[in-house]
Amino acid sequence: MNEVAETANVSDKIRCDACPVMCFIKVGQTGACDRYANEGGKLTRVDPHVLLNRTLRQGGTVVPFAADKEWDGKILLGPDTFVTAIGAGTTYPDYKPAPFIVSAQVDGVDIVTVVTEGIFSYCGVKVKVDTDRHLGRESATVRAAGEPVGHVTTAEYGSQVLAIGGVAHLTGGSKNEGRVTCETLLDLCNAGPVELTIDDGATVVVRAGHAPIVNGVQEERMRVGCGSATIGMFAKQWFGKVDDVVVVDDHITGVLSEHQAGKFLGVKDTGIKIKGRRSTPGRYFKVAEPGTGWGGTNITDPLAILGPFNKAEAWPGLRLLMVSTTGEHFGYFELDQTLRPVERELPAALSESVARIKENCEPALSSVLFMAGAGGSLRAGVTENPVRLTRSVKDAFTSVTSGGAPVYVWPGGGITFMVDVTSMPEAAFGYVPTPALVAPIEFTLKLADYEVLGGHMSEVRPLSSLIADGHRELPPRPSNPWPFTMPGWRSRS
Ligand code: SF4
Questions:
Q1: Which position has the higher pLDDT, 231 or 63?
Q2: 192 Cα–ligand 1 center, Å
Q3: CA–CA separation, 307 and 272 (whole Å)
Q4: Residue whose CB lies within 8 A of the most ligand 1 atoms, among 26, 30, 34, 35, for a mutation test
Q5: Fewest beta carbons within 10 Å, which of 12, 15, 61, 121?
Q6: Alpha-carbon distance 365 to 16, whole Å?
Q7: How far apart are CA 28 and CA 16, in angstroms?
Q8: Are 226 and 325 in contact, with CB atoms under 8 Å apart?
């Protein structure tokens, strides 16, 4: 818990100036965002300031709060401790220096970390939903609690990506749209479950790091590949055990006897006829409408995509396997005397291959990447000459982290970054009712470079001041690189 300042006092209220809302807060109460409180006339950031300590074991004991402890004399900021922006607070307007500008010695070099909880109106999340099922057409509106909060964007290999949030939904629609968008982003970023409905599409519950639930059914696995790729991968395992295989896929349905993989093995023509648009041999587009049935199509009966077999090539007893791209759906058929497929029990030799498809499918997850632009006024809290910070980030003199987690900074203008929310400490995000999301951001660079940058050198804090303010120590996530050893961090001197 950080005591921030005594600000404008109106009778027993104090005014919080950490965001444009400028709440007047009574003694013992919190402001509109629940992040700041009036504690005995002092404006206080109510959540503890999070430090990462790599000497703590992941999942081990966490020092919950140090406000009431005497400093034990340990060097707080050294190579094993990293100051995150979580709980650090925000300064507003931005020309004021960031709340914490702290120095540390790493490998004999003085470095500085500038931290702030950025208030982002220009932000959103990209949600990757691992599913073969059709969630909605590209560009369809995604809603939460009935309000438009985003849209369906591209389908990727075994996944559907949703774009949620963005300034147009936060500020460009109705007040309720902005509020619901902000709530949705906050829940998604803090790895909570969120139910989203897609216009003329599915209802999906997503939660970072968890399997998506599509129309009430929990997704188990993502596809092994498209229909054509599946033919390529498993052709050899089918050869000799079956005469033809169709891998049903909404995007590219594969047919063994026509596919290059089948030709290579010497699979003979079967006279099979697929309803759909033939792309290249053994690869068909649009065999059905998209849906939540076989291979992301709307079909429940795979024979619906077959036309009559060519009598000149097919033969009674011809063995046909039809399977989806996850192995979740499959059927085995043999042609009768009239060359019509009749379903039979799947032979043991083929059930092995279906099981192999399933085995090769990875677990389906929802992934949430937070994306925001930090190239605006926030930079003034770091340096008096904001463009120098942008250049310094681009030139890799300054490393950017979010809650100590690595970020990807987009090329081009600004400091537009993306971070996997599951790589960050829990509950790292907050909000303000403007509406906007509050996200931690840290800039780390050599102290000498910070001076060159026009940094707020007089604001570099003594280590002991962090002890006095209280903090919470957490172990870093083992999969994250330690912020002081991030690749790309280098120095001009
Ligand atoms: S919404 Fe929160 S940060 Fe903004 S003024 Fe009110 S208490 Fe302060």
A1: 231
A2: 23
A3: 8
A4: 35
A5: 61
A6: 40
A7: 14
A8: yes
Give mean pLDDT, residues 44-51: 92
State in Å: Cα 23 to ligand 1 middle: 6
Quick one: what percent of the chain has pLDDT higher than 70? 90
Cα–Cα dist 14/29, whole Å = 10
Residue linked to tokens 């950080």: 2
**Both tokens of residue 234?**
């498993």
Q: Categorize the per-residue pLDDT at 70 as very low, low, confident or very high, splitting at 50, 70 and 90.
A: very low
Rounded distance between C-alpha atoms, residue 256 and residue 235, angstroms: 7
CA count, 13 A, side-chain hemisphere, 161: 10
The residues, ordered by sequence, that sit 6+ positions from 393 with a Cβ below 8 Å of its Cβ are: 400, 409, 415, 443
- Contact predicate 136/199, CB 8 Å: yes
Quick one: which of 118, 124, 125 has its CA closest to 172? 124
pLDDT tens digits, one per residue of 189-200: 999 999 999 999
Instruction: Assign 96 a pLDDT band (cuts: 50, 70, 90).
Output: confident
Q: In degrees rounded to 5, what are phi and psi of residue 399?
A: -100, 140
Length of the chain: 493
Q: Measure 413 CA to ligand 1 centroid, in angstroms.
A: 30
∠ CA 183-189-190, nearest 5°, is: 90
Query: Which amino acid residue places its CA nearest to atom 4 of ligand 1?
Result: 19
Average pLDDT for 33-37: 94
CA distance 260 to 461: 67
Show the ligand 1 pocket: residues with CB < 6 angstroms. Answer: 16, 18-19, 21-23, 31-33, 35-36, 432-433
- Report the alpha-carbon angle 12-13-14, nearest 5: 130
pLDDT at 60: 43
Atom 7, ligand 1: residue with shortest CA distance = 31
Record the tokens describing residue 230, joined without a space.
Answer: 């599946």
Rounded alpha-carbon distances, angstroms, from residue 378 to 257, 386, 389, 413: 60, 8, 10, 15
Question: Lowest-confidence range among 45-59, 67-81, 271-285?
Answer: 67-81
Q: Give the Å distance between the CA of 15 and the centre of ligand 1.
A: 9
CA angle 477, 478, 483 (to 5 degrees): 70
